[in-house]
Amino acid sequence: MLWLTVVEWLSRLIFVFLIGLSFWSVTIIIERRRFFKNLAMPGADLKKKIKNKQMNQVDPHFFSDLLKELTTLKQTEQIEKAYDALMMEKKKELEKGLPVLGTLGSTTPFVGLLGTILGIIVSFGELSQGGGSTNSVMFSLAEALILTAVGLIVAIPAVVAFNFFNRKVKIVMSEASSLKDLYIAYKD
């Protein structure tokens, strides 16, 4: 039967699709890991320079670049507005790839489940034709269950990485807000 062959190839296509999604997920995870590893948190040295009003002597850095933008402004209200605008730009950079990880983490188990359902349909199709041996039916059932496992194998690291990097973004945003407040307190 033609429909049985089509369903069988669809389940195999889903397997290849899941493998591709896995590579995409791993690529994003590696890139974000490198990004956050290179993004050092501000040390006591930067805070000390803010307190001593030595902003022209700070090394280029994610946080110091943000603060240098604010040094040209005098009024607290302007600083607050400029900070909000700058952080919206920086937040895009910080969250790059995270929506993809979140989507992969939440959808790939269902894609794997779809492949499993298609594989089970193939197994029942072989049984209904009467020509399928026990081994071929068991093989197609095992093949179907592998798709669920692959879906979970893609989803679990994606969810863990999404949560981990989301937490990193919150820490960076909190630290930047803290530095802004410190700058405002010592600017006069």
Describe what this molecule looks like in 3D.
The protein is an all-alpha fold. The protein has one domain. Helix content is 84%, strand content 0%. It has six helices and no strands. α5 packs antiparallel against α6. The longest helix is centred in the C-terminal third of the chain and has 53 residues. 24% of the residues are buried. The model has no long low-confidence stretch (mean pLDDT 86).
**What percentage of the residues does DSSP assign to strands (E)?**
under 5%
Largest sheet features: none
- Put simply, the count of helices is 6
**Total strand count, please?**
0
Write down the secondary-structure element order.
HHHHHH
Give the number of domains.
1
Helical coverage, percent range: over 70%
Low-confidence stretches: none
Counting helices, strands and paired strands, the structural category is mainly alpha
Alpha-carbon distance between the termini? 82 Å
Shape: rod-shaped
Question: What is the typical, i.e. mean, pLDDT?
Answer: 86
Give the radius of gyration.
26 Å
Architecture blueprint of SSEs:
Elements (H helix, E strand, L loop, with lengths): L1 H37 L5 H8 L10 H9 L5 H19 L3 H32 L4 H53 L2
Defining traits:
6 helices; mainly alpha; 188 residues; single chain; rod-shaped
Quickly describe the structure.
The protein contains 6 helices and no strands.
